[in-house]
Amino acid sequence: MRVLLVEDEKKVASFIKKGLEEHGYAVDYGSDGKSGLVMALDEIHDLIILDINLPEIDGLTVLRQMRAKKVATPVLLLTVRATIEDKVIGLDTGADDYLAKPFSFEELLARVRALLRRSSDSKSPVFTVADLVLDPASRQVFRGSDRIELTSKEFAILEYFIRNRGRVLTRTMIIDHVWGYDFDADTNVVDVYVNYLRKKIDAPYEPKLLHTVRGTGYVLREE
Ligand code: CA
How many domains does the chain have? Predict the structure, then answer.
């Protein structure tokens, strides 16, 4: 799952980013409304956490412009103002939920999970390729009747593959989606994780589903 965080207060931003990353989310970060809006319009995020008081363009304007451009990504608004009027304005503008500062990380995480569950329920609840099954809501993976335990990174990679089944994904696409834009590392890390995944979801089973596309990347499909 990939989250966009738009928040100008450095301390709050790094607290949220670190916490979410520890829970297996990839986090892209914008420190003002203008850069946040540009990233939001890419429509590559599963969720946007958007502060209202931002430099350049305020959060409500970012939200209004996103929705005007038909970007439907769920949005969790952050604010210091917690009056009923402000809450109504935020929700009317197209926010999916609202969290007043200060908040605990546990509360934020609960809201994030609820929003992601809601949006995955309204899309496709369960993904399958052959007898491989991934349920994003319960975060469970099965191959046939075997339940497969994955780490949060392995799960994030498999989820990206299965949501794009049949499509070749490059190492760079996988890095950007699973680790976030600012992850500064060798794309070899992808090969390492794909190997871990293969050992769990493919090695003991037939048919093989995760294929190497020489010189390009990987694809998940039934041949
Ligand atoms: Ca702010």
Answer: 2
